[in-house]
């Protein structure tokens, strides 16, 4: 009886869905029939920096796009890159991509998506240009801070949660930058090549998941070339993979000014040209030249219709054409700010904590030295296209002063000096990075000497972590290592807090201080979050979504000399061995491994079992374990499942992340954790058959708290 009700419900649901689809397609065709060629083409290119033209007589409003991944960007002028100077465009600012991934908490990605959706709607935006999900390949890529991880599975999970939530608020996401946009140096011209295996196993899974599981409505084609063709005119990427294989029926838009041709781009599946340079929008490739191509018979009008249909489909799905039923949005609510705060708290990774220096016992501490430019620097409004005008941004110094200023002597010293400011396309901010300012160091040492505890807020800023150029090295800049050494000499309780969005070499300070905390860029609540974790109001629960090497030469792209390429070409010779896959498989010791992060308490993981011993290709493996918080304070651990194939016909990484779960446990509490892996996700990409292949045989599923800290394993057989 129950079963038949279920089947009936399914039938009704399926019919309802297909009826909606049929109705949508009918509506699209109806609108297209009423359009002139000129009107159609007006929908395929920007009419200003972030807008696409309206067609008033058909009830199609102007389409509003906005950056960016971790907040809704401030209003810009329509025809240049200056800000419009509005006073109503300050918003909630989240910690950027690497920080989001460091939470390993998908609920927070979902909540972020809701907040961004509501704020985008309030600001009357239709498309939010994010998430940016390129693989962190080189530690030097300027946009690493915006991206999420070196691991495609972690990226996919976050992208899907974020996109679904954002789009549930009637705002289209735009997953970017498709594809292989892994460096900013030469980003407009670099020609990337790699094996099919690397493409499908490492660089595409995030995009595939965004389309097939997240149902992302728009995709942004990257600036660079892939195998000789610009991404905006690349048949393999735009047609074969995106449309034919992933069945994408949304809008493929260009990155800003990334289109180089009319016909090639049109044929390769690009729908929308967005841009920056020329202000005569009718001259753009997808404007008058496209009309001419059709009129002169070089392109068929049906191709234009296909593109218009894609645009209208996204508009209909996000209710652009039905404004009465559309989400109205909300901005800067306490709830939004609370999600930003929680996202910052949970991103914080405790790397080292000798003698339990942390959490600070605030009742016993009488004085604290707060050192470093990053103690007072605001970061939300940096980094170029992802810059946000936050409603407010709390720095660490402000937070500690507000929270403990009455009970604590706070001794501030700047410690090091940011040298200059970069401009777009220039890395001028990195000119003087090794400058050691001894006067500032001496002042810091004096403050540290007279304080019970010294906290140094070190790391980077958006002179380094930025769109449009890469970092010139991976060291701590501005003499920070010297500063840390000198302060640690006079104060044994020196805590280093790293503010940065991409990997740094920390081996020069690692053994000099008892405690290191990685706090990323924390968005508008950065200071509150880090001070609450240091003082024990909150506990650290973040895990590295990247590997921290001992030195840059250990990184695969640098070890093999494949960054940033030669003569504007780069071949990803390390192949699938990116990030921890390289370190783990080759047995190279990193400083801190992927997935690593300590807590203020301890966890025991035991009783690891799989639900069966043998599986066929369509089944799901369930791995269970018991986890107990055996310490005295509350905490959270991320249980990570890595898979390896015992014997394979191709070289495979020693381990690959296949599932994870963040578990919150009160002191003494115990829980059972269940992780699921689809057998089909144990596949590798077989270049001989151009398809995914799961070979029969033994697979080992390892459970751990980082890729290096494996607690136990179970073996299963796949038939
Ligand atoms: C960036 C994109 C961004 C666009 C619009 C480009 O330079 O690469 O990520 O969305 O500008 O600001």
Structure description:
- By secondary structure, this protein is α/β, with parallel strands linked by helices.
- Among the domains are: 1-62 and 230-317, no CATH class; 334-545, Glycoside hydrolase family 3 C-terminal domain (Rossmann fold, 3-Layer(aba) Sandwich), CATH 3.40.50.1700; 603-718, Immunoglobulins (Immunoglobulin-like).
- It contains 19 helices and 26 strands.
- It has a 6-stranded mixed beta sheet with strand order 1-2-3-4-6-9. Strands 10-15-14-13-11-12 form a 6-stranded mixed beta sheet, with helices on both faces.
- Strand 14 (494-499), helix 16 and strand 15 form a beta-alpha-beta unit.
- Helix 4 runs parallel beside helix 5 (152-167).
């Amino acid at each position: 009886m129950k079963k038949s009700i279920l089947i009936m419900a399914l039938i009704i649901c399926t019919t309802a869905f297909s009826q909606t689809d049929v109705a949508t397609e009918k509506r699209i065709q109806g609108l297209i029939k009423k359009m002139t060629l000129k009107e159609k083409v007006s929908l395929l290119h920007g009419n200003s920096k972030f807008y696409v033209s309206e067609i008033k007589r058909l009830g199609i409003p102007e389409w509003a796009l906005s950056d960016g991944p971790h907040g809704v960007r401030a209003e810009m002028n329509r025809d240049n890159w200056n800000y419009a100077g509005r006073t109503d465009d300050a918003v909630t600012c989240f910690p950027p991509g690497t920080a989001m991934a460091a939470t390993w908490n998908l609920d927070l990605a979902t909540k972020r998506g809701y907040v961004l959706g509501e704020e985008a709607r309030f600001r009357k935006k239709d498309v939010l240009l994010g998430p940016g999900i390129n693989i962190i390949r080189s530690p030097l890529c300027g946009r690493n801070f915006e991206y999420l991880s070196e691991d495609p599975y972690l990226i996919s999970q976050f992208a899907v949660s974020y996109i679904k939530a954002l789009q549930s608020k009637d705002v289209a996401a735009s997953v970017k930058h498709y594809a292989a946009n892994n460096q900013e140096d030469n980003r407009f011209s670099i020609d990337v090549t790699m094996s099919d295996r690397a493409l499908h196993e490492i660089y595409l899974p995030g995009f595939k998941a965004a389309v097939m599981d997240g149902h992302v409505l728009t995709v942004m084609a990257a600036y660079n070339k892939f195998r000789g063709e610009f991404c905006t005119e690349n048949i393999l990427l735009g047609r074969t993979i995106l449309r034919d294989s992933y069945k994408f029926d949304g809008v493929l838009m260009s990155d800003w000014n990334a289109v180089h041709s009319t016909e090639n781009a049109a044929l390769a599946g690009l729908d929308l040209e967005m841009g920056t340079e020329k202000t005569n929008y009718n001259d753009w490739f997808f404007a008058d030249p496209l009309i001419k191509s059709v009129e002169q018979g070089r392109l068929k009008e049906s191709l234009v219709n296909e593109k218009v249909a894609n645009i209208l489909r996204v508009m209909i799905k996000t209710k652009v054409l039905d404004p009465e039923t559309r989400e109205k949005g909300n901005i800067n609510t306490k709830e939004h700010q609370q999600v930003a705060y929680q996202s910052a708290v949970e991103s914080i990774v405790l790397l080292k904590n000798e003698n339990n220096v942390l959490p600070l016992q605030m009742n016993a501490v009488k004085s604290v030295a707060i050192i470093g430019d990053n103690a007072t620097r605001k970061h939300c409004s940096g980094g170029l296209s992802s810059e946000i005008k936050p409603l407010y941004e709390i720095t660490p110094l402000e937070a500690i002063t507000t929270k403990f200023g009455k009970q604590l002597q706070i001794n501030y010293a700047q410690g090091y000096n940011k040298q200059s400011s970069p401009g777009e396309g220039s890395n001028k901010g990195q000119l003087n990075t090794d400058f050691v300012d001894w006067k500032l160091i001496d002042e810091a040492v004096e403050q540290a000497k007279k304080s019970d505890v010294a906290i140094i807020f070190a790391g980077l800023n958006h002179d380094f972590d930025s769109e449009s150029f890469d970092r010139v090295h991976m060291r701590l800049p501005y003499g920070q290592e010297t500063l840390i050494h000198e302060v640690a000499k006079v104060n044994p309780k020196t805590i280093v807090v790293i503010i940065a969005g991409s990997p740094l070499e920390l081996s020069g300070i690692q053994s000099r201080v008892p405690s290191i905390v990685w706090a990323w860029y924390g968005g508008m609540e950065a200071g509150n979050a880090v001070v609450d974790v240091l003082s024990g109001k909150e506990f650290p629960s973040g895990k590295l979504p990247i590997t921290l090497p001992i030195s840059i030469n250990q990184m695969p792209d640098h070890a093999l000399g494949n960054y940033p390429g030669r003569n504007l070409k780069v071949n990803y010779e390390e192949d699938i061995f990116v990030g921890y896959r390289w370190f783990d498989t080759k047995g190279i010791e990193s400083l801190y491994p992927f997935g690593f992060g300590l807590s203020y308490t301890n966890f025991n993981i035991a009783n690891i079992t799989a639900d069966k011993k043998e599986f066929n290709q369509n089944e799901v493996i369930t791995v269970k374990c018991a986890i107990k918080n055996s310490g005295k304070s509350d905490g959270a651990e991320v249980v990570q499942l890595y898979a390896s194939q015992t014997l394979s016909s191709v070289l495979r990484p020693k381990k690959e992340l296949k599932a994870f779960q963040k578990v919150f446990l009160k002191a003494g509490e115990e829980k059972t954790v269940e992780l699921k892996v689809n057998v089909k996700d144990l596949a590798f990409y077989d270049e001989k058959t151009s398809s995914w292949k799961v070979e029969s045989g033994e697979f080992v599923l390892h459970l751990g708290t980082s890729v290096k800290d494996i607690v136990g394993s179970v073996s299963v057989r796949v038939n």
